[in-house]
Amino acid sequence: MRRRLLPALAAALLSTPVVAQDFSSIGGQYIDYGASMMAVGQLNNVLDGTRQGGPAKSRPTPSRAVDTRYRASPAVSARVRAQFADFAAKADPARADRLRQVIGRQDLLAQWERHVAVDGLRRGDVADAMTAYWVQNWQLATRTAFVDRLHVQAVRAQVSRALAASPAFARLDDAGKQEMAETFMLNFVVQGSAYSDAMTRRDQGLALRLSDAAAARLRTEMKRDARQLRLTAAGFSR
Fold it and tell me: Are 58 and 45 in contact, with CB atoms under 8 Å apart?
């Protein structure tokens, strides 16, 4: 992600007098709302085949081309946003109304795009959304402040190979791709803004809990210990 770990995300997120700490409670959830992990097994295969020092015969064979882009529908965005607001309200009932207001009224997807554009990522592409999500969670888990565009794009290549190898992904239509991507994007915003706010307020206890939550997510979703992964010019490597 950006040269600094989410330095301005909390400040830039909201134009109304709502602060990123509203997301702290749900940003620390170990299980994301609706994050589809259909490509986890394939990504694990990619990681196994591209580990540094691994024999050439262990590397995966090239996958067929796959279209990871989709044509977005406002109706699908509205449905994903409403479902995410329901999840947030359930996760933090005491601030349910405020969270629904923030998620319903703010263009969080546009904020996501502005934040990741420096790394060549954009809306309308599942691979871009998944890449941003995994790189950010790795940053949070390892408390790594700087990741450059080269490394982000290397992970994107891994993600693209994983999606190309997934029969389930091949069956998705535009609406399915959009729902998958925007769910990753909303999770990215919530998790990143919660961590950014904790760092801004120098709340090291909360920052550590959010870091541990990110490590737990990747352990559940990628079947990998994020703190044992390195981010290299070839992408994630053990």
Answer: no
Instruction: Give dist(CA 36, CA 41) in Å, integer.
Output: 12
- The sign one gets for the Cα dihedral 122, 215, 212, 36 is positive
For 40-72, what is each residue's pLDDT tens digit? 445 555 565 444 333 333 344 445 678 999 999
pLDDT digits (tens, 9 = 90+) for 69-85: 999 999 999 999 998 88
Backbone angles phi, psi at 231, to 5 degrees: -105, 115
Q: How far apart are CA 186 and CA 76, in angstroms?
A: 14
**Rounded to whole angstroms, how far apart are CA atoms 159 and 166?**
11
What is the distance between the alpha carbons of residues 131 and 184, in angstroms, rounded to a whole number?
Answer: 9
Q: What is the dihedral of CA 36, 40, 41, 43, to 10 degrees?
A: 140
Which residue ranges make up each domain of the chain? 9-237
Q: How far apart are CA 230 and CA 141, in angstroms?
A: 12
Q: Are strands 230-232 and 235-237 parallel, antiparallel or unpaired?
A: antiparallel
- Residues 6 or more apart whose CB falls under 8 angstroms from that of 120 comprise 149, 152, 153
DSSP-derived 3-state class of residue 235: strand
Give the model's pLDDT for residue 139.
94
Residue range 2-19, pLDDT digits in tens: 434 444 333 333 333 333
DSSP letters spanning 128-195:
HHHHHHHHHHHHHHHT-----HHHHHHHHHHHHHHHHT-HHHHT--HHHHHHHHHHHHHHHHHHHHHH
Whether 13 and 193 have beta carbons less than 8 Å apart is answered as yes
